[in-house]
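Practice record 12: protein with zinc ion.
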Amino acid sequence: MEFWEAETEKPIERPVVIEPEFPPEPQECFAPQQYYAWYCSDNQTIYINTSMLELWQEHFTEDEVPYSLAATMAHEVGHAAQFALRPELAELDTRDPKISLPIEMEADCLAGVWAAGPITEGRLDRETLERVWGQQIELLNDEEHQQTHGLPADRVARLSAGIDGGVEACWQDGS
Ligand SMILES: [Zn+2]
């Protein structure tokens, strides 16, 4: 959060709710119970279900789980930064895959922008991050996910683009 406050020069205080009640308040922040993590622009809150942690623990080694969590949080915080920079996005209907896809790809890229710092400082191993990110998307990969979030290889490519190119690499539509 501090990273993006410095980067965007806007206050980004985004609460994180672990295992929200269903249906969460406000209603606009509703997501199906099988969703693992999501960002709600209506109350600027990140929601995480513990089923996600269980899934990561089931599929990743003890050393990989922190990478998995870091990648997920970096993506959701990427949304927070994205909506802080471009509040007009909140007006869009993200249930439409044509609208959600570029927004999701941008969040993947912004996750990479954040990761670049810890990678340079030696706190994150780039190769492990990219590999675990790709593997966790494979776990979620179904037709709906592909339409709304993109293909696993594309999502890894966006993360890498953010690590290499910074924020400028993330605005695909030139805005
Ligand atoms: Zn997202």
